[in-house]
Specification:
Layout (H helix, E strand, L loop, with lengths): L1 H29 L4 H37 L14 H37 L3 E5 L5 E4 L1 H7 L15 H9 L6 E7 L2 E14 L2 E10 L1 H46 L6 H31 L8 E4 H15 L4 E6 L5 E4 L1 H18 L7 E9 L2 E8 L6 H4 L17 H11 L3 E6 L5 E6 L1
Parallel strand pairs: 7-9
Antiparallel strand pairs: 1-2, 1-5, 3-4, 4-5, 6-8, 9-10, 10-12, 11-12
């Protein structure tokens, strides 16, 4: 308010001076005809007008300089708050305060940028960000070290490393993991690659992370082989041990009769027949075991087509309900249609296996029930199959997907392993959630 009042007062004084000077000029020219004085007054009038224009425009010049500094992100300018009088002291003080505030914000922003840059460089995961033209805007040391590329301006330069890698970076979808094997100067990397997309100033950038999971895979592979070997050894020894023992016993019985110089007695023949029958049964069991192993390793290639999960589940329920009449099978779905690309026959095989397992787990349960829920989450279809049985003990839960592992007397131990392999062919997953006396739930994500 003070600024505007002083500005108006100074402007009014200058206008009055111009008016009086103009009147004097007219008087000396037209009335008194004193031309020399008229010349002096004319020069004075020009000076006063020029000074008023300069006075008005000097605030515009300072204001323009202030705005230009803001536009160019240059906050180093400082305005003299006392040099131009009290009229503009408060204005220039405000200019200086704004500049100091922006300098502080700029410094904090620079500190935050350095912090984020340091954090990105510190992480062991390789990170790269690029625009739609493939120009790289961010790359950390972990990525450079992983792919042995100390400098990278455009992702197309990665063709030297592996020509498939550039195609993968361009085609990878957000929030979807891809596994990629690449040999870097004799060093085989198992990369887990994940991407996300963000926008800055209406330009879409893709941020991709690279993680070498070879060590983790080696550990998991070793553990899987150890578990599989233990199960195979257990199953084979269950058949080989009694066959070996019984064969040795029968051999001793026959040897005694032969050494006695007499033919085989009836009792010996009966024992021999009984023993051979046991050997035959155990041999058949071993054959079934190896046949199951062959089935596990010969899953057909999926015939992908557009299918509605609701219809597939309803068909399986109709089929299974007739076999397990005592068990109540309930189905609910958030929508009428869940269209996905899948092999309907293989998916039905998975569902049949899971429902069959659940029904068998409910044989000793009063009011046995199976609940099937179809829902969606983050662009994925979720099938949850739950039962109200006794549940699975913790020491068994982590082994149920291991081939040939079973707690059933008549089970082959390949059902859940087959389910997992089929779902992996569909880029899906299956997990089990259970605890004693609280039932079991299998969650399928497609």
């Amino acid at each position: 308010m003070t600024i505007s009042k002083n500005f108006r007062l100074n402007l009014v004084i200058r206008i009055l001076l111009i008016a009086f000077t103009l009147l004097g000029l007219v008087y000396f020219i037209l009335i008194s005809e004193q031309y020399l004085r008229s010349v002096y007054l004319g020069l004075l009038l020009v000076f006063i007008v020029a000074e008023m224009i300069w006075y008005i425009e000097r605030i515009n010049r300072d204001f323009n300089a202030f705005l230009l500094g803001l536009l160019q992100a240059d906050f180093t300018a400082t305005f003299n708050e006392q040099a131009k009088g009290k009229s503009f002291a408060h204005l220039y003080t405000t200019f200086n305060k704004i500049n100091r505030k922006f300098r502080k914000i700029s410094a904090e922003k620079e500190i935050q940028h350095l912090y984020l840059e340091t954090m990105v460089e510190h992480v062991k995961t390789g990170i790269i960000s690029f625009d739609p033209d493939g120009n790289v805007h961010l790359i950390n040391n972990a990525f450079k070290s992983m792919l042995q590329k100390p400098y990278l301006k455009n992702i197309n330069s990665l063709n030297i490393v592996d020509d498939r890698l550039v195609d993968l970076l361009i085609s990878i979808k957000p929030n979807k993991k891809e596994l990629f094997k690449v040999n870097i100067k004799g060093n085989l990397l198992h990369l887990s690659i994940e991407a996300t997309i963000f926008k800055l100033h209406d330009i879409e950038y893709k941020l991709v992370s690279f993680q070498d999971i070879k060590n983790e895979l080696d550990v998991q592979e070793l553990e899987s082989w150890q578990k599989l070997i233990r199960v195979l050894t257990h199953e084979i020894m269950n058949s080989i041990t009694p066959i070996t023992s019984l064969t040795a016993t029968l051999f001793e019985i026959i040897k005694v009769d032969v050494k006695g110089g007499k033919g085989l007695e009836k009792a010996t023949i009966d024992n021999l027949m009984e023993g051979l029958e046991v050997i035959l049964n155990r041999s058949n069991g071993l054959h079934r075991f190896t046949d199951a192993y062959r089935n596990l390793s010969r899953i057909p290639v999926p015939n992908f087509q557009k299918v509605n999960l609701v219809e597939i589940i309803q068909q399986v329920i109709t089929l299974q309900q007739s076999q397990f009449e005592r068990v109540s099978i309930n189905f609910s779905s958030e929508k009428d249609k869940y269209l996905i690309s899948a092999d309907p026959e293989l998916l039905q095989q998975v569902l049949i296996n899971l429902i069959k397992n659940a029904a068998e787990a409910l044989e000793e349960i009063d009011s046995p029930a199976i609940q099937i829920v179809l829902s969606s989450q983050a662009n994925h279809s979720i099938i949850t199959i739950s039962d109200n049985g006794h549940g699975i003990p913790d020491d068994v839960l982590d082994k149920i997907f291991i081939p040939f592992f079973t707690t059933k007397n008549e089970g082959s131990g390949i059902g859940l392993a087959l389910c997992k392999q089929i779902l992996q062919l569909h880029e899906g997953t299956i997990t089990a959630i259970s605890s004693p006396n609280s039932g079991t739930s299998f969650k399928i994500t497609l």
